[in-house]
Amino acid sequence: MSGKAWPDVPVDVGPMYEGERIRYKHMQVELGGPRVKHKFELARVRPMDEVEDGRITIVGPDLKDMEEKS
Known about the structure:
Layout: no helix or strand
């Protein structure tokens, strides 16, 4: 599988990259790991009639608006 499955993603995506790591110097933000004191994951489940395909809602700042290495 390559990025062709997701034409808006400008890089290859697929199982061939499973296990690959992004090194700290190449990160924009770190959303967990040893450098972050508090970390969490929130997963919410909604009935299908409340789900709109393709809709994403960002709560908080967008990654592009966050300070590098924050």
